[in-house]
Amino acid sequence: MSGGNTDLQAADIALPKIPATAWAVLGILSFGRELTGYDIKNWSDAILHFFYWSPATSQIYTELRRLEDLGLVSSRTVARDEVRDKTVYAITPIGTEALRSWQATVDAEAPVLKHGVLLRIWLGHLAEPDRLREQVADHRTRLLAELAAAKESQEQADTQPDWAYPALVASWAVRRIESEIELTDSMLIDLNRLANNR
Amino acid sequence: MSGGNTDLQAADIALPKIPATAWAVLGILSFGRELTGYDIKNWSDAILHFFYWSPATSQIYTELRRLEDLGLVSSRTVARDEVRDKTVYAITPIGTEALRSWQATVDAEAPVLKHGVLLRIWLGHLAEPDRLREQVADHRTRLLAELAAAKESQEQADTQPDWAYPALVASWAVRRIESEIELTDSMLIDLNRLANNR
DNA sequence: CGTTGCATGTAAGGTGTTACATGATTAC
DNA sequence: GTAATCATGTAACACCTTACATGCAACG
In angstroms, what separates the C-alpha of B108 from chain A's closest C-alpha? Predict the structure, then answer.
């Protein structure tokens, strides 16, 4: 509205064309901490993994280099112990604005689910019924472990100040895993019925 | 049990090392129809997409070539119209046994979810509250369309003979989308509460 | 008569993984 | 003393997508 506004507007920042993984890594750094590539991998495995896939370690280092070349993150060397150093990365003001601009202008693609267990059930005509139920039961066990991890992540988010959004997402993750456990149980019942009706 | 059993056992078949996408394409052909690459892409978009991602068309043709080289599928040329031909693919006995063997021995990897909307909510501290709610509302609309498509897919599966397993998976897909709609509604409420508390 | 569907690819390039390598430190 | 953790990469390669190209047929 005001003609004299020279503030940095989200729309003013050129939106670099970088893959989704790069935005995710930048997003992790947007919480304001200085992190090593190793730290980012751990965050990724612990949190991102509930709603986005966790890239390989080498990929994270590749993205960090890309982001630094673009000026979206900065790095500095700090002491790790008396002998060795480590490199910590932080988001830059340009990086923050780029992320904001990405948020404001790039619509989310349709979510993608890659569910190997469901693929195997879909191809159930080729499997032994026992094998199928074994796979589903294993999946259920995995879900229980995920649920515990998600709940822990939720507690973490609830205790951090200014983590309202991560807390929202953590609560979504917990409920979505609970729902998948129900669906898995129901699938097991259906599978039993199918196996008995022959 | 019997020593004289010379039948082809799943475990006897060498398990070729091919990517998950190749198994998915082979799986589509395991329902016994002769399909063109184009047909497979359509099946993929219509069905596979509910629980597995749908590969690009060019990727499907690549996988078909790979599968044919391995003898897991065969192709033949048939007339399309008076002028042009088309190539239809069918699974071979070796292909069926390879799939069986894959089912019997390869455990499913952990499911992967790539949910761009959730990633954006997780980074909500960088977004305008309105923009966030817009993204979630758009996602809800998308889910409604998916739900309709999943229900149609379910009806299809229910009317086909010997499609008990696809029917099971379709019913799972319907319920999982319904559950995600609920989670989305609840997310919208939480987002409203967050926006008002400031 | 223009658009959508059918049908099949190639070429280029980007994305991402696996395997490997290194080595000090800390925990058991 | 041995395993796990921290920390950082490189090299090779596989996977997959995008963009492009082609052209008839059928539908409105």
Answer: 5
Whether pLDDT at A17 is above 50 = yes
If you write DSSP's letter for every residue of chain A in order, what string do you get? --TT--S--GGGS------HHHHHHHHHHTTS--B-HHHHHHHHHHTGGGTS----HHHHHHHHHHHHHTTSEEEEEEESSSS-EEEEEEE-HHHHHHHHHHHHH-PPPPPEEE-HHHHHHHTGGGS-HHHHHHHHHHHHHHHHHHHHHHHHHHHHHHHSTT-HHHHHHHHHHHHHHHHHHHHHHHHHHHHHHHHH--
Is any Cβ of chain A less than 8 angstroms from the Cβ of B83? Answer: no
Res A98 pLDDT > 60: yes
> Alpha-carbon distance A190 to B79, whole Å?
42
Q: How far out from the chain centre does Cα B3 lie?
A: 40
pLDDT for position A13: 58
Q: Does A104 touch chain B (CB under 8 A)?
A: yes
A161: confidence class by pLDDT, cuts 50, 70, 90:
confident
Distance separating alpha carbons of residues A124 and A105, to the nearest angstrom: 43
CB spacing of B121 vs A169 below 8 angstroms: yes
Beta carbons of B119 and A168 less than 8 Å apart: no
Output the pLDDT for position A1. 37
pLDDT for position B82:
80
Grade residue A8 by pLDDT with cuts at 50, 70 and 90.
Answer: very low
Helix (H) or strand (E) holding B12: none
Domain borders along chain A are: 10-105, 116-197
Specify the CATH number for A10-105; select among 2.40.10.10, 1.10.10.10, 2.160.10.10, 1.10.10.60. 1.10.10.10
- pLDDT, mean of residues B121-146: 96
DSSP string, A125-150: GGS-HHHHHHHHHHHHHHHHHHHHHH
